[in-house]
From TrEMBL, chains A, B:
Superkingdom field: Bacteria
DNA-binding region: 37-56
InterPro entries (alphabetical): Homeodomain-like_sf, HTH-type_TetR-like_transc_reg, HTH_TetR, Repressor_TetR_C, Tet_transcr_reg_TetR, Tet_transcr_reg_TetR-rel_C_sf
Entry-linked SUPFAM superfamilies: Homeodomain-like, Tetracyclin repressor-like, C-terminal domain
Keyword Transcription: yes
One Gene Ontology term from the biological process aspect of the record: response to antibiotic
UniProtKB keywords: DNA-binding, Repressor, Transcription, Transcription regulation
Annotated ranges, domain HTH tetR-type: 14-74
Protein name per the record: Regulatory protein TetR
Organism: Streptomyces auratus AGR0001
Pfam family, any one: TetR_N
One GO MF term attached to the UniProt entry: transcription cis-regulatory region binding
Length: 223, 223
DNA sequence: ACCTGAACACCGTTCAAGT
DNA sequence: ACCTGAACACCGTTCAAGT
């Protein structure tokens, strides 16, 4: 039957900072960065846009909180049995996959340097670098290079994904690019043409890991 | 004396795509990403916002064109006398410094994967990788790792810079962060505390290069 | 203490009208 | 062909007024 009261049904649960942030993450994941507006968020939370401002200072803080929320759930758990190399690879893949699932995270994480989520990643990498018996004077550089690579490249990859149409077939797309590379000017793009074939069986995740391994080799080869 | 005509003085030179783009780059450099609006751009070009749309499809295309313009001027010139390692380092530093001067470039470059500006960087790196006598099957991965590192980490660095207040003293800032690191929980942040001291004499540019060298070592150590 | 929603000062973009 | 600028449909944010 029809509702018994005149007033439209409104929110039952109280509006909390937590609920706002998780709704923001959902909006970012489903409708993207341009879809996260205070009006859309308010509608989803069955309230007015002004109410959100009582719990969150503004859009910048909202995005920072959403980013922290995602990173925090990513960085939990640490396999202490693994070799340092394996542990670093696992951590790197964790970040990579998190950026894959939430392509907006990279953008905003970069705007919070030295903040707690990045610091936790840094600490974890650093411990593994120590376990690799890297001399103390070289530890900072080694850990920095790894973290910068991880955040930077995973962020690049996420940005690439965002530009692709959601429906595009991966293989088809790579084939098209590879073909385009083959048709480049042989003088200007000699190298690119040579490796065009390798692009067809290209795997972003594997390529990402291969880069990690190159840095790890570089770190250990120094000793 | 006063002007002889009634109509206010307007633009003399014709409005061209080129003038629009270079004005956009100027606005981005001086007032930042939020300062680039069609209204501000129109005022600077002494016209109305609608006029810009006759030459440029929209804001997305405008940003892409501005990005390409900056990258194109960065990538010119190539020292053929240098060793492969030196050439790659020089190229990397060129990108790093360009991102430093135009901190917005990284953001938008990442949104144009496989497009001409990035392809030119890739080609240059690839040629040096070949010069390093990397086996053909490993060339794609080596060049990708280097390019991803360069774009990713330089982009991270630029994003970091953007978050800093323009007036902040570099040394003071690093000192403050280092001190904060020293006060972290010893259990949770054992490694970070250990390297806090090294942060004081930290140099982003040098650290960036050190990462390049680690990858280069990794690439050549494989052979 | 917490919420509401109209109102303000902006945006990007369009388009009829001008030259 | 190219430009003008008012108008449209949005934003983030504020704030007087409510409970």
């Amino acid at each position: 039957m029809a509702s018994r009261t005149r007033r439209p049904e409104r929110r039952q649960e109280p509006l909390t900072r937590e609920r706002i942030i998780s709704a923001a993450v959902e909006l970012l994941d489903t409708v993207g960065e341009s879809g996260l507006t205070f009006r859309a968020l308010a509608e989803r939370l069955a309230t007015g846009p002004g109410a959100i401002y009582w719990h969150v200072a503004g859009k910048t803080e909202l995005l920072a909180a959403a980013t922290d929320a995602v990173v925090t759930t990513t960085i939990t758990g640490d396999d202490t049995d693994a070799t340092p190399q394996e542990a670093i690879r696992a951590l790197a893949l964790g970040v990579f996959d998190a950026f894959d699932a939430h392509p907006w995270v990279g953008t905003y994480l970069a705007r919070r340097p030295g903040q707690s989520p990045m610091l936790r990643v840094f600490e974890r990498i650093g411990r593994r670098v120590q376990a690799l018996r890297v001399p103390e004077a070289a530890q900072f550089t080694a850990a920095s290079a790894l973290m910068n690579y991880i955040l930077g490249v995973a962020g690049q990859n996420a940005a690439n994904l965002r530009t692709l149409q959601p429906g595009t077939d991966r293989t088809e797309f790579l084939d098209a690019v590879a073909t385009a590379w083959t048709e480049l000017d042989p003088d200007q793009y000699a190298f690119t043409r040579t490796v065009a074939g390798q692009l067809r069986k290209h795997d972003d995740r594997a390529e990402f890991l291969a880069g990690i391994d190159l840095i790890l080799t570089g770190i250990t080869a120094r000793q």
